[in-house]
Structures are given as C-alpha cells and as structure tokens.
Write a structure and sequence with these properties.
Elements (H helix, E strand, L loop, with lengths): L4 E10 L2 E11 L4 E5 L6 H8 L7 E6 L2 E2 L5 H8 L2 E4 L11 H12 L4 H14 L15 H13 L5 E5 L7 H18 L2 E5 L3 H6 L3 E6 L2 E7 H5 L4 H7 L15 H15 L32 H10 L19 H5 L4
Parallel strand pairs: 3-8, 3-9, 6-7, 7-8
Antiparallel strand pairs: 1-2, 1-4, 4-5, 9-10
Helix pairs in contact: 3-4, 3-5, 4-5
Bound molecules: adenosine-5'-triphosphate (ATP).
Adenosine-5'-triphosphate binds next to helix 1.
Length: 340
C-alpha cells in the first residue's frame, strides 16, 4: 500500500500574493514526510493543493499516474478516495457520537452493510485506542481523543495517503509523544504515504523519513531526515533549533546584514563562521536525534533496514555529493540511496 506523490514546479498565488513557487519534491510511497515552515508560509495551502481543493497557478501533482491539478471535479472525487485527512481540530460533527462520526465516510462513500461498517469502525477505533468511547460526543472528550477520533475517521476508507495538518497542535507534550508513537505504529501497520505539517520540532526530528522546509515563498530543502538534521543551511538550522538568530524574523524576513551579524555572533559561540559553515566545535545543534521506532511486536516495513543502515553512518551524508540540495534543483531520493 501507499502511493508516491510527485510534485513538480508547483506555484500558488492568491491575487498578487505569491504563496510559494517552483516547488518540486517526491513523497516516496509508504514513507513518512514532515513539512515545516514559519507561520503563513503556505503549508496548509500545500496540503489543500495536493488533494485538489486548491488549484495551483503552474506545475503538477502526480498521484497514481494522474495529474491532480488537471482533473475535473468528478475525477477529483475518485482521487480523493486515496486520501485520509486529519484536520487540526479533528473536524468532527459536534452532534454525532464518535461511532457515527467515524462511520460517516463509509456511509457516505460506500454501500457497505451496517454489520461491515461496524467491524471497520471498531477496528479503526481499536487502532487509535478509542474502544469504549463509541457513545461519547466530541464535546465530552479531550483534545487528544478528538485527534485520535479524527485519525480513526481518516483511516476507515483504507487510504493510500494520509495528510496530517498540525496533529500535535493544542496537545500537551505527553499526548504529543503518544500521538507520535501512534503515527509511527500506524505507518508500520498500514504502510500508507504520510505527510505531516507540524510546528513541533521534537516530532519533526524523531518521526519522519523525510523533512521539507518552506520559507521565503519556496521550498528551501526537502530530503531524508538525517540530511536536514545535519544540514548547515542557516534557515534549516535556525528552524530545527527553534532560535531567533538566523534569516527567519518575527513577522518577516530580516535584512542580510542583520542575519550575517547574528550568525557571526552565534558562530563565535559555536565555532562556525558567518555563513554558518562548520568549524571544529560546530556539532552542538546539528546532531542526529534517535528515530522513534514502531512499538515492540509490530513488523517493520522493509525500508526500515535500509534507513537504519543509512542513519548509522550519518557522517557519510556530510560528503558534498550526498548533501541535501534545494529540492527543486535535484532529486533528493537519488542522494538518499547512494550509500544504502
Ligand atoms: N483561500 C485563500 N484565499 C486567500 N488567501 C489565502 C487562502 N488560503 C490561505 N491564504 C493565505 O495563504 C497564506 C498561507 O496560509 P497557510 O494557512 O497555508 O499558512 P501555514 O504555513 O499553514 O500557516 P500556519 O503555520 O500559521 O498554520 C496566508 O497568508 C493566508 O492568508
């Protein structure tokens, strides 16, 4: 299960406001990818464009041989069946019990008998740890439970692709940790292609196979997790370390002189020069974070062995030919598999 999503030269604007341009990347089938970026850089717009809810100005989104951007409404309806989407608040119907909320897509899109619907709903509720909460209303449960109910609903049509829009927003750190484990376990079980938009750096470091970063109306970088975690690109380093020094400002971009001065000061502390290039002591915040593994007893997808080997020798990734490049200029997956 799981299908590849191939995005090429995608540009989206609203009126004169360009949201992002020339975005190219491949979300590999069955893998987990995370999209990061400061607020307002168009991550949600990107998700909506993948599902065909928004039309781009230029470019293509190829899924299972079809360019989503060119499809008519009735064709999009079919392609959307490949997707499960977990919206920020779970997007549950407030007046429906969880059971009916989760059964909703099955009743809307299939002709399955109620006995079959019951089997599927209970199976998905079990997967997200919600057995026993069938009769609860969304208003009676915690935010974490609402997210899990939204996830169960996203799963009922057995999607090949699951999009998560800030699944961790509004959750405490412990609930986020449980949710991350659930995401990793689900991916191991159903092997669908996952794309997660998040602001939670700890999650972005541990959960995905691939990370992308949107900034300044473009995709700064997209590539395997270890390449971004060890990258010297100033925007990537600033974002993954959640600090003020660097090109990303409070509300807008900073001017070049200010960025240079900040990075020089930071570099003095960490042994790097103003461009962010590494010196002997620069490893402080570019280290690898251990990957979150599926729970014991879950079979790991076949790609895990290759990824584990690759990550076991991240120093090999630091060599120039293996460096993550701006995603629209090179195919990151080629670089990713060179030493597997
Ligand atoms: N339908 C729309 N019409 C006009 N502008 C829109 C529309 N949808 C989004 N935008 C604009 O696109 C920009 C990007 O919005 P988006 O919600 O995708 O950002 P984001 O990166 O997901 O932000 P956050 O991290 O804060 O959720 C914003 O300036 C927003 O106002």
């Amino acid at each position: 299960m799981g299908v590849e999503i191939c995005v090429e030269g995608l540009t989206k604007s609203f009126g004169h406001q360009v949201i992002w341009q020339d975005v190219s990347l491949t979300l590999p089938a069955g893998e987990v990818s995370v999209m990061l970026g400061p607020s307002g850089t168009g991550k949600s717009v990107f998700l909506k464009t993948l599902v065909g809810l928004l039309r781009p100005d230029r470019g293509s989104v190829t899924i299972a041989g079809q360019d989503v951007t060119k499809l008519r409404e009735h064709e999009l309806y079919e392609v959307r069946k490949l997707f499960g989407v977990l919206f920020q608040d779970g997007a549950l119907f407030g007046s429906m019990h969880l059971y009916d909320n989760i059964a909703f897509p099955l009743r809307e899109h299939t002709r399955k008998p109620e006995s079959e619907i019951r089997r599927i709903v209970l199976e998905k509720m079990d997967m997200v740890g919600l057995i026993g909460a069938e009769e609860k209303l969304p208003g009676e449960i915690s935010g974490g439970m609402r997210k899990r109910a939204g996830l169960a609903r996203a799963l009922v049509l057995d999607p090949e692709i699951i999009l998560f829009d800030e699944p961790d927003s509004g959750l405490d750190p412990v609930r986020v940790a449980y949710l991350n484990q659930l995401i990793v376990d689900l991916n191991a079980q159903i092997d669908a292609t996952f794309l997660i938009v998040t602001h939670d750096i700890a999650s972005a470091r541990q959960v995905p196979d691939n990370i992308g970063l949107l900034f300044r109306r473009e995709l700064v970088m997209f590539g395997p997790r270890e390449q971004l975690l060890t990258s010297d690109e100033p925007v990537v380093r600033q974002f993954l370390n959640g600090r003020m020094q660097g090109p990303i400002g409070m509300a807008e971009e900073k001017d070049a002189a200010q960025v240079e001065q900040e990075l020089a000061q930071l570099g003095e502390r960490e042994g790097r020069n103003a461009k962010g290039e590494s010196g002997p002591k620069a490893a402080t915040d570019t280290g690898m974070t251990p990957r979150l593994l599926p729970s014991p007893g879950l079979a790991r997808p076949p790609r895990w062995e290759a990824i584990a080997k690759r990550e076991a020798k991240p120093e090999a990734k630091a060599e120039p030919e293996d460096e993550a490049k701006p995603a629209h200029k090179t195919d990151q997956r080629e670089a990713a598999v060179t030493d597997i």
